[in-house]
What does this fold into?
Amino acid sequence: MSHTSTQGGHSADILSHTEAGVTTLTLNRVDKKNSLTTAMYTALADALELAQADERVRVVVFQGHETVFSAGNDIADFLKAPPVSPDVPVFRFLRTLSTFPKPVVAAVCGPAVGIGTTMLFHCDLVYAGDNAAFSMPFVNLGVCPEAASSLLAPQRMGYVRAAEALMLGEPFMAEAALEMGLISRIVPPTEVNALAQRQASKLAAKPTAALREVKRLMKQGQAAQVAQCMAEEAAVFGRMLGEPAAKEAFGAFLEKRKPDFSNL
It folds into this structure.
C-alpha cells in the first residue's frame, strides 16, 4: 500500500504518505520555518485519527526539513484564532497524539520551538540532527506551557533543568537533549529522516498487538495525570492570553520591539 495525500487546509503544509505500514507526516511549510497554523493542527489531528483507525498503519513518523523542524505557532494565525477553549485544533492534536496507541517516531533537525519540543514528550522514539535546537519559550510570551510539559519536562529532564528550560525559555542543543533523555540518538541532519524511517520499518515488522500493549503498559501509570495536566494547562493558557503580559509580548512581537514586563 502506498499513497500520498495532502491533509487539511488549502495547501500542502502537511504531507501524509503511507507505505509498508508506516504513515509519515511531514511539516511542509519550510518558507515559514514550519510554523504551525490552525489548519495544520486540524490536518495533523485528522491524519492521526485516520492512522489510528487504519489497521494497515502500524507506525507514525513525524518529520520536518533538515534545516528546521518547527518554529512553533504561527503567531499571526495564532492571534487571529487564539486557543481559548480546550476544543480548538491545537489541543485536539495534542490530545490525539498523547493517547495514540501505536508507536510514534520523530525526526528533528534545526529549531524545535514550543510545541515543536513539547510534542516530542509524546513520541516513543526521537532522532535528532546535530543541528537540533529545542526551546519552550512560553513564559517569554506571557503564557504557560502545553502538552502536559509542565508535568513531563521535570520528570524527563529533572526539575532544575526543566525549570531552566521553562522559566528562562532558552534553547538547549541536541547533546543536552540526549543527556536528559528527550531524544534517542543524534546523527548528521542529512541522515535523520532516513534513520527514523529505518527504525519505523523495524517497528512495522513487529507484532502490532505486542507493541500496543508495551506502549499502553508503559504509559498507563500516568495517563490520567497527563490528561488532567493537559486540560489544566489549556484552561490556564486560554486565560493568560487575555492578560496584560501576553498582550505586551504579542504586541512587541508584531511591532518588532523588545517587550517590557517591568510593571507586570
About this structure: The CA atoms of residues 80 and 178 lie 36 Å apart.
